[in-house]
Amino acid sequence: MYILGAPAKERQADGRTVRCGSNSIWVGDGQSYNFSLSTSWRPARWVIVPFLLFIYAQTVRNELRASAAISRGETIILLAVPVGIWLIYKLIASSFATDFDDTNFYLYKKSGTEQIPLSQVNKIKFTMFRVGYQHYWKIGYIDAADQQQFVRILPGVQLQAFENAVRQKNPRVEVSNWSSSFDLDQ
């Protein structure tokens, strides 16, 4: 099994061996649970960032070849583009994958795997931010230090199953399936 191109991760949870793959969780009791909440941008960064740098280099080369002097607007654009490319790279580099099973919510980050009990998830909220036709969802939870934390995910087809699993463990979870542009909690 592989998760985002890397070998599957295996760990002990409640005395059972748990192996997490790209879109499934295999539990040592012989059952396989297929739960996937989000996609990761990590494979795309090797294509997007070099492509943006290539476009920027071509633009700078063409501007320097022009016989006329570069205007202030063009200078601002030429200085703003690297900042934009850097921001896109930071967004892609900070991406992570998520999975869940019947007891935990898993965040696979660059620094390691974070395991959150579903009973600690207290908010599932639709947001106005989107990529293509998918909207980000904001998931709030209480971490090990009793601090409120939030993650934003692009959900897969298993969002309803995730909501149901969280409602079973935490009936007081706040679920919001709508948002407006006046909603400041994005």
Brief digest:
This protein is an alpha+beta fold and 186 residues long. It has helices at 42-65, 72-93, 159-169, and strands spanning 2-3, 6-7, 9-13, 16-20, 25-27, 32-33, 97-100, 104-109, 112-117, 121-131, 134-142, 148-153, 174-176.
Provide keyphrases for this structure.
alpha+beta, 4-stranded mixed sheet, 31% helix, 186 residues, 3 helices, PH-domain like, 4-stranded antiparallel sheet, elongated, 2 domains, 34% strand, 13 strands
Question: Would you spell out the secondary-structure blueprint of this structure?
Answer:
Blueprint: E1 2-3, E2 6-7, E3 9-13, E4 16-20, E5 25-27, E6 32-33, H1 42-65, H2 72-93, E7 97-100, E8 104-109, E9 112-117, E10 121-131, E11 134-142, E12 148-153, H3 159-169, E13 174-176
Parallel strand pairs: 10-13
Antiparallel strand pairs: 1-2, 3-4, 4-5, 5-6, 7-8, 8-9, 10-11, 11-12
Helix pairs in contact: 1-2
Gyration radius, to the nearest Å?
21 Å
Structural category: alpha+beta
Mean pLDDT reading: 72
The percentage helix is 25-40%
Alpha carbon gap, first and last residue: 35 Å
**SSE topology string:** EEEEEEHHEEEEEEHE
Total DSSP E strands: 13
Give the CATH level 1 class of the largest domain. Mainly Beta
What does this structure look like?
The protein is α+β, with helices and mostly antiparallel strands and 186 residues long. The protein has 2 domains: 120 residues, PH-domain like; 52 residues. Helices cover 31% and strands 34% of the residues. It contains 3 helices and 13 strands, in the order E-E-E-E-E-E-H-H-E-E-E-E-E-E-H-E. The chain has a 4-stranded antiparallel β-sheet, with no helix packed on it. A hairpin with a 2-residue loop joins strand 10 and strand 11. Helix 1 runs antiparallel to helix 2. It starts with a strand and ends in a 10-residue tail after the last strand. The N terminus is likely disordered.
